[in-house]
């Protein structure tokens, strides 16, 4: 497969072919996403929960993001790779954001960064894109701001709210974003915003009128124990947790019953050599 570049993504957008994007948080999760043919692999700060067991994304720090970006980058041969700027690494000033973005690209070895926020982040997005680092915007529901939003709520459900989503989308486009993630906005709003923009929209909980889709890998592959809450927009395509569980339980049973290891799993020794050893 040919390396996906910013030009490849632009070409898909021009052809109206949906852009596929999936998160990865380490070497194996990136390896499988790349082999499956994802156009973009995102090292989302959702790794705080899915890889580090944290409560929410506000806990993960830049160094941890960089470490995970590097492991993802090592496994990714074709997909375009993006790393999230975590909370606290970019809000203070455009210079701080640029410094963090440079670290994610230089040390994390990914090709672009994503940051949350609309109109108010325009100067920051401009600063980073002027340095030659592709920026993916992220508007609508921005999880790093959950406390200010009053939780994980759909955005743009009212006329005013929808206008705000459109204003943010146009602002991040004007600031230089190559694409923008629309999270948890009504499908009609996301479709209209997509039509009005000249850059691709990547939807998550935003209907099928977007230019592409993104999901968190552990959610869509079912790599979590039964009973965990999943947002309404997630479609679960697999049962990776169940498969791992079955394999590990079978291993346990085999070890307890001495069915494993079988003769084919052991190293042979010439009988004569062993006889001498035994005496
Ligand atoms: O952190 C993440 O996984 C994300 C995607 C859900 C867009 O930001
Ligand atoms: Na994120």
Oligomeric state as shown:
single chain
Number of strand segments: 8
Q: Report strand %.
A: 5-15%
State the distance separating the first and last CA atoms: 59 Å
Q: Which class of secondary structure composition applies to the elements? A: alpha/beta
Low-confidence stretches: none
* Number of contiguous helices: 12
Shape: elongated
Mean pLDDT: 97
List the helices and strands and how they pair.
Layout: H1 6-15, E1 19-23, H2 27-35, E2 40-43, H3 47-50, H4 62-75, E3 80-84, H5 94-106, E4 112-114, H6 122-130, E5 135-140, H7 146-149, H8 159-175, E6 179-183, H9 187-196, E7 201-204, E8 212-215, H10 217-220, H11 240-257, H12 271-278
Parallel strand pairs: 1-2, 1-8, 2-3, 3-4, 4-5, 5-6, 6-7, 7-8
Helix pairs in contact: 2-4, 4-5, 5-6, 6-8
This protein binds 3-methyl-2-oxobutanoic acid and sodium ion.
Description:
This is 3-methyl-2-oxobutanoate hydroxymethyltransferase. Catalyzes the reversible reaction in which hydroxymethyl group from 5,10-methylenetetrahydrofolate is transferred onto alpha-ketoisovalerate to form ketopantoate. The structure is a single chain. With 279 residues, the protein is an alpha/beta fold. Helix content is 43%, strand content 13%. It has 12 helices and 8 strands. An 8-stranded parallel beta barrel has the order 1-2-3-4-5-6-7-8, surrounded by 7 helices.
